[in-house]
């Protein structure tokens, strides 16, 4: 679905749920992915990340998906367990992202930056019925003063776009990684984690 005419953005629902808060209760809702054929307008994406969960109550997170526009979003997930190989992939992605952040000098501006491994394998032709066997990574920058609520670091404002793109480039080199995503969602109380 195209959601804006200024920038060609495509929004799609991902087949995973994350933790969120609706009212006073913890909830588990879907993740909305956004992709683009153009360079993203990060301010517009942050606006959409605030708007989409308010309008679509079955969505509590919005992520930008780097790479070419997603034509066929994944409809299934890669079976994933806490095995040595899976943990090694996650540790490598986390190391690359944090190493680049430290080298850039912006580590002190970001309160926290969890790196999440998701069981999503993009860019498969549904007609070929290729099984889901890769995983994707979410970079989740978090700026806060109390670690209860917070906002994502907007590329181009709180963190240079070049730093984020370098993270994407280096993480993409890790074997078994399909796509890299950037969490655009503000964090209400109790939702600093992905589950």
Q: What is the CATH architecture descriptor?
A: 2-Layer Sandwich
Shape: globular
Total count of strands: 6
On the 0-100 scale, what is the average pLDDT?
90
**What's the domain count?**
1
Low-pLDDT runs of 5+ residues are: 1-5
Q: Strand share of the residues?
A: 25-35%
Detailed description of the structure:
With 195 residues, this protein is α/β, with parallel strands linked by helices. It has one domain: GMP Synthetase, Chain A, domain 3 (2-Layer Sandwich), CATH 3.30.300. Helices cover 24% and strands 25% of the residues. It contains three helices and six strands. It has a six-stranded mixed sheet. Helix 1 links the parallel strand 2 and strand 3. Helix 2 runs antiparallel to helix 3. The chain is globular and about 45 Å long. The two termini are 27 Å apart. The N terminus is likely disordered.
Short note summarizing the structure:
One of its GO terms (cellular component) is cytosol. With 195 residues, the protein is an alpha/beta fold.
């Amino acid at each position: 679905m195209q959601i804006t005419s200024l920038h060609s953005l495509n929004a799609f629902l991902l087949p995973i749920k994350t933790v969120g808060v609706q009212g006073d209760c913890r909830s588990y809702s879907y993740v909305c992915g956004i992709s683009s054929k153009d360079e993203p307008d990060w301010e517009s994406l942050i606006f959409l990340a605030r708007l989409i969960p308010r309008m679509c109550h079955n969505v509590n997170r919005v992520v930008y998906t780097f790479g070419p526009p997603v034509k066929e979003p994944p409809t299934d997930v890669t079976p994933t367990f806490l095995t040595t190989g899976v943990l090694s992939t996650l540790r490598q992605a986390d190391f690359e992202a944090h190493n680049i952040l430290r080298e850039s000098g912006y580590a002190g501006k970001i309160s926290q930056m969890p790196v999440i491994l998701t069981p999503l394998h993009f860019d498969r032709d549904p007609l070929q019925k290729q099984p889901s066997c890769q995983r994707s990574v979410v970079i989740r920058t978090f700026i806060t003063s109390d670690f209860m609520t917070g906002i994502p670091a907007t590329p181009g404002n709180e963190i240079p776009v070049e730093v984020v793109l370098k993270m994407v480039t280096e993480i993409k080199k890790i074997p078994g990684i399909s796509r890299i995503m950037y969490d655009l969602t503000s964090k209400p109380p109790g939702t600093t984690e992905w589950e």
